[in-house]
Fold:
Amino acid sequence: MTKRVSALLAAILLAIFVIGGNHPCAASEMRPIVIQGAMDVETQFMIEKLTDVEEITIGGWRFFKGALEGRPVVVAKTEVGMTNAAASTVLAIERFNPSAIINQGTSGGHAPGLHRYDIVLGKTAVNFGNFRTEHGDAGKGVKPEKWLPMTITVNVKGEAKEFTDFKGDAHLLEVAEKTSAAYKHGKVVTGVIGSADQWNRELDRIAWIHATYNTSAEEMETASAAQVAEAYGVPFLGIRILSNSELHDEGFDPKAGIYCQEFVLDVVRRLKQ
Structure:
């Protein structure tokens, strides 16, 4: 009798373990892809394309859980800025256990060869607001051209590692590159997405950032989300569309946000294959 009870208890515990999704045999394809955007213009189109949408609010951050043609997807409205994006990413990973994260949305152009509606696939993402200055005496002025980039320390699996930037996941990048042939509103290139709590419009400042960090575009979220994803070991890719470019006197156009969302949804569809 004792052996039968023990066997029954073991079976119940195993069933709970598998149902909970932590068993190695649990279906990994059921884990959602998280797609991030900071503003309505970067998220609303995608939300409307999902079925069976459930809105979940955690603190000050909103998540829209649904499906895209049967594939589980969570659209995360991160809000604007590095801190918001980092917090939203932590919450998304802890709550939804995603198989991958794509941070996407609008950006300003840094590379002279790029124009409004061109898309940058983040081979890397860099925090260009992370720098130090040398000592300067009072009255000697501010010399931003001499500021020095610093590394970022991330605890990865218990080990502190130094990063100058964060690489996009190779598989996600490959799929996005294959999707680029279908994009009709501009070019799709791989490059460096630069992030900071800044909106730069001074051409000399933009030129310095581009020369120092090799940035293709700037925005305010990708690098911080990538940093969190790196710490958790979640595959990550930044995809940014140029919605404006000071270099070419091209003002902000909200249609860019829709074009980027369309492209990202096409990438997610390809990930099913």
Observations:
- Residues 67 and 237 are 20 Å apart (CA to CA).
- The radius of gyration is 21 Å.
